[in-house]
Amino acid sequence: MTTRTRRETIVFSHPFQLRGIDRELPAGAYAVVTDEELIEGLSFPVFRRVATMITVPCAPPRQAAVEMIAIAPDALRDARQADSRTSRP
Fold first, then answer.
1. Is 76's pLDDT higher than 80?
2. Full-prediction pTM beyond 0.70?
3. Pair 53, 62: CB distance under 8 Å
4. How far apart are CA 76 and CA 64, in angstroms?
């Protein structure tokens, strides 16, 4: 099976929470990795998402380290929408 990986950086302007992560994350830039696999047997290439992961700072006392956590794509979408709706000081 052919797979591909897409990487993007997402910036949050405010502290935020993601479903599945039990702590608030600080504002900043976050690396998001999406793995997709090719659906074979079609006359044109089509990929389906199989995993979405975000790199976040570890929980205290190890904030200097990072961890990659699998997340639901809709949880990421909801967090981005909430960040854009948050009023600016």
1. yes
2. yes
3. no
4. 23
Cβ partners under 8 Å of residue 62, min gap 6: none
Closest CA to 53 of 62, 39, 66, 64: 66
Of 57, 59, 55, 58, nearest to 69 by C-alpha is 55
Q: Do 54 and 16 touch, CB atoms closer than 8 A?
A: no
Q: What does pLDDT average to over the chain? A: 90
State the number of CA atoms in the 13 A half-sphere of 14 facing the CB: 13
Q: Which residue has the tokens 């702590």?
A: 23
Residues in contact with 19: Cβ distance below 8 Å, sequence separation at least 6, in sequence order: 71, 72, 75, 78
In Å, what is the CA distance from 3 to each residue of 36, 45, 55, 62, 89?
6, 12, 20, 33, 43
